Amino acid sequence: MKSRRQKKIQELITNEPVKTQEELAQRLLEEGFHVTQATVSRDIKEMGLIKISGSDDEYRYAIQAEAHPPGYQERLKRMFKEVVISFDSSENIIVIKTIPGNAQAMALLLDNIGWKEVIGTVAGDDTIFLLIKPKEQTEIILERLTELS
């Protein structure tokens, strides 16, 4: 039950801004999880959730990987310009070619940028596969990559 509840918490805070423990407890109740505020508090601590500033200057819960240090986007942009040779897509897979030895570092930055359409990356020495879901979002990710370059 605990792992299902924590998975639901992760899903909720990833897909919508949740600002308070009370709000999180209410959303869990709506999803069929009967919890107390103390249970929610323990889950937040165990999951290592943090509060970050949202787009409306209000704080919301987030998974630590979402909390990028200042300049994270600039670091991604700088590295993208320095190491990416090309990128292209087929259906819901985007293939990024980098200079040798840089694909894994670039993939790590892409994994942690928080683009919900990217399910994950697979990186070799000079090639990255980005898996996109749903397939219709591939064009949006290609546009974002173009903006980085």
Describe it for me?
- With 149 residues, the chain is an alpha+beta fold.
- It is built from six helices and six strands.
- The protein has a four-stranded antiparallel β-sheet with strand order 3-4-6-5. The protein has a two-stranded antiparallel sheet with strand order 1-2.
- Helix 4 packs antiparallel against helix 5.
- The longest helix is centred in the N-terminal third of the chain and has 14 residues.
- It is elongated and about 50 Å long.
- The mean pLDDT is 88.
Number of helices: 6
The SSE order reads: HHHEEHEEHEEH
Mean pLDDT: 88
Tell me the strand percentage band.
15-25%
List the main descriptive attributes of the protein structure presented here.
149 residues, alpha+beta, two-stranded antiparallel ribbon, 22% strand, elongated
Summarize the structure.
The chain is an alpha+beta fold and 149 residues long.
Which SSEs are present, and which pair or pack?
Elements (H helix, E strand, L loop, with lengths): L1 H14 L5 H10 L6 H11 L2 E4 L5 E4 L9 H12 E7 L2 E6 L4 H9 L6 E6 L3 E6 L5 H11 L1
Antiparallel strand pairs: 1-2, 3-4, 4-6, 5-6
Helix pairs in contact: 4-5
